[in-house]
Structure formats: structure tokens, C-alpha cells
């Protein structure tokens, strides 16, 4: 039975098993490859997307659980927090290899959407579980602070 998913404002009817992870529906069926596969057990954050506005790990989310929800990927994220995060990421040269960055950006946007002036502890808590093999954590934290300042202006 087809499942209907709304991704980045566009509805897709997919004929997949209900337990298919959302990540694979997004990447393999819809063709949006910005959301990455990292671990497959919701521990690294590379697959983070928004489901009804909440940052969610798509590698362990079955498509049946999100039918009718609004799903936003890195390709569709927008608004003031997203623009500020993207500008800060570029200004501070955050990515090294870049593989984890879509998940990092999605988590940072989620944080700044809820807390426009995060402390280091707020950032550490919100970004916990987003792993970076290149260890750019200091630049990520600095970029989130920079993005918060950009949102004020």
C-alpha cells in the first residue's frame, strides 16, 4: 500500500514497506541526498531532518510513522535561523570533510529556533549526539554563537 510523504512541501506517494526507514525513502526514492547515512542506529546525527518542526533521526524512523507529517530536509530548511546558521557556517569555515554537516546544521537550526541566545551548555546539550569525525566541534560551537548574533541584527 502506498505511503504519502510530504517532504520540503512536496507530496510523494511511495510504494514501500511501512517499516522502511525515512532516510532511505528520502535518499533513494525521492532523490534528496543531502541527508546522510552515518550509523543506522540514531547515534551520529548525520541523518537529522525535521518532522513537524522537531529534529529527528531519519535512519530509525519508519515511513509509516510520518505519513501526514511535514518533513524538512537540509535541502528545504529555510527561515531566519537557517539563513543565520548557513552564513555562520560559511564565515567560520566550519566543515572539514563535510559529511556530518547537514545533520549538524539541522540540529543547530532546531536549537536556534527554540533558543536565540544559547549558552555553551545549551549548545553542548542540543548538539550532543551529532558526531564529527573531523572534530570541528569548536568551530561548530563558535558558528552557533555567530548565528545567534546574526539573528539579532
Q: Please tell me what the overall shape is.
A: globular
- In spatial order, strands of the major sheet run 2-1-5-3-4
Strand content: 5-15%
The overall number of domains is 2
Task: State the separation between the terminal residues, measured CA to CA.
Answer: 49 Å
CATH superfamily of the largest domain: [2Fe-2S]-binding domain
Question: If you average the pLDDT, what whole number results?
Answer: 97
Summarize the structure in words.
- The chain folds into two domains: 3-72, Roll (Ubiquitin-like (UB roll)); 80-152, DNA polymerase, domain 1, CATH 1.10.150.120.
- The model has no long low-confidence stretch (mean pLDDT 97).
- The protein is an alpha+beta fold.
- The termini are far apart.
- A five-stranded mixed sheet has the order 2-1-5-3-4, sandwiched between helices.
- Helix 2 (80-91) packs across helix 3 (101-114).
- The protein has five helices and five strands; from the N terminus they run E-E-H-E-E-E-H-H-H-H.
- A hairpin with a 2-residue loop joins strand 3 (48-51) and strand 4 (54-57).
- The protein is 39% helix and 14% strand.
